[in-house]
Amino acid sequence: MKTLKYIILTLLITAVSITGCEDNLELEPEQSLLPEVAVSSPANLQNILTGIYDEAGQVVSYGGQINLASELLGNDTDLSWNGTFEQPAQLIEKQLVPDNTFVRDYWLNAYEVNNQANIVIANLNVFDDQSERDRVEGEAKFLRALVYFDLARLFGQSYESGGGNSQLAAPIILDAVLDPSDITSPSRNTVEEVYAQVIIDLQDAVSLLPDTNGIFADRYAAQALLARVYLQQGNYAGARDAADDVLQNSGHSLTATYDGAFNNDGDSSEDIFAWQITSQDGVNQMNTFWAGQAFGGRSGNPDVSINGSFFSIFDDANDDRSQFFYNTSGGTATTKWQSQFANIPFLRIAEMHLIRAESNFRLTTSIGLDPLVEINALRGRSNAGALGAITLQDIIDERKRELAFEGFTLHDIKRLQGTVGTLNYDDNFLVMPVPQRERDANPNLMQNPGYGN
């Protein structure tokens, strides 16, 4: 893929050296290490791996714009876009064009993450310590799986649990590129093929990663992401068992209050994995778009406001989640993204409860907890009254109440085969176009239907 010409430059940034003379008065010019040197030691490879987290957490990806895309594309009447940027306006209007820069930049970022992960995986022989090698490989495969999963969900039609899935997603590139002469121009792989690669990588990550790994991905982060993938596929036994493993063994638990799960400077007990933000590093773009100006948001105050129709999902006035909002001159804002330098929760233990409850209900099993007990535990955390019995719709509604504005809306509509206004879940305009600059560089990239030739 011609895009990778730009990706190679990011590798060179990962290892920079400044050499001084003995008197410290004359400095050598700042230089990047040659690629073969950058991958020649465990320390250098670890630096590249750490850089991948930073790359994936950029504003164009998991720092905010991927979540924004799902929420706006999946929106009918619950949200309004008050901002001045045309790109998100195209998302909420379902009128994307192939040169939309939000779409372009996410595609580019995903393949930057992918190539750097491939570089790490291709050079694991520099490690003598097997446990260190396993950890690094597991983290790289977790990150690679992450971006391919969302490439498939955003650029391909939804996964159909009945099989087939020959609809096009994104090219799978597993070879590391360190030299522009090695760049190829691959065609798009199918949704089935991309999901298969995602599952292989995540299963490997589960077996390779340690149970704990600080702020980085560990075994249970990989298992939690695998539960999410299985749920999207309609593989309820796989989703249930993966979520149950996380709930039983990870040591993570629901925060005491709903408020405690958000706007945290460090990871809460509920965070299986979160994108790390500080005042010196990282940007919480969720705050940029979803918060009022007084809390760091843009001039739309907020750019994304919540409309009255959203609140119809609440069935108990005492539910803390129904009050997790504040008013601004531009409309109602969610309190979830109120802190400018808070971490961005990505895999929460609450999601695992919802996955296990839904999967158990569909399969008429009670692995871990009975679905009614599990849903009532979530409701109790938010001071919502207990239910005496539940239906599948009750579980779906609970999921909407718990996970609102966290990037699930479009993907849940697709897996549940719902609608967005008058658009069916498989409408062409609920799939992103392949960026035009990529097609200009690579003639083998077929465009999605509805976006021209």
TrEMBL record:
Q: Give the main location.
A: membrane
Q: Per the record's keyword annotation, is ATP-binding included, yes or no?
A: no
Q: What are the subcellular locations of this protein? A: Cell outer membrane
InterPro entries listed in its UniProt record: SusD-like_N, SusD_RagB_dom, TPR-like_helical_dom_sf
Residue ranges occupied by any SusD-like N-terminal domain in the UniProt entry: 25-231
Q: Which residues cross the membrane?
A: none
Q: What is this protein called?
A: RagB/SusD family nutrient uptake outer membrane protein
Q: Which species is the source of this protein?
A: Aquimarina rubra
